[in-house]
Amino acid sequence: MTKRRVKTYTISAVAEIYDIHPQTLRLYEREGLLAPSRSVGNTRLYEDGDLERLEIILSLTRELGVNLAGVEIILNMREKMDSMQREFERFFEYLKTHAGEFSQQVETFAQTDALIPISRYRRIEYRETVDKSEPPA
Q1: What DSSP character marks residue 135?
Q2: Is the pTM of this model over 0.70?
Q3: Does domain 11-98 have CATH number 1.10.1660.10?
Q4: Do residues 33 and 43 make contact, with C-beta atoms less than 8 angstroms apart?
Q5: Could you please report the per-residue DSSP string of 42-107?
Q6: What is the pLDDT of residues 13-71, one digit of tens each?
Q7: Domain segments of the chain as ranges
């Protein structure tokens, strides 16, 4: 089994690549915008995912003038949207793999006058009740 090697960058290398001060990177970490891993000696190690996130942060702050609070909100929204996208993809994959089962279930629905067929196993009867203690209006 081969171990995949992940390319990492130190804080000084990242600061030089993106033309920012290392203190700015430390600030982003304190604010929770970046979370680089640490070496055994506690050195910050930035991976490709961290650099992609940093590029988004820098684009928002430099090009669009978004403050750090706004950046945090935007990044959180992006993460939620990505999570929702993955959930939709899993759901659609489930639908594709189980489409045959759904079509078989349609055949087992009871015949009713309802606009929407209801499974005979999940039929819930609805009866309108009249409260006899109140006089009719």
Answers
A1: P
A2: no
A3: yes
A4: no
A5: --EEB-HHHHHHHHHHHIIIIIS---HHHHHHHHHHHHHHHHHHHHHHHHHHHHHHTHHHHHHHHH
A6: 999 999 999 999 999 999 999 999 999 999 999 999 999 999 999 999 999 999 999 99
A7: 11-98
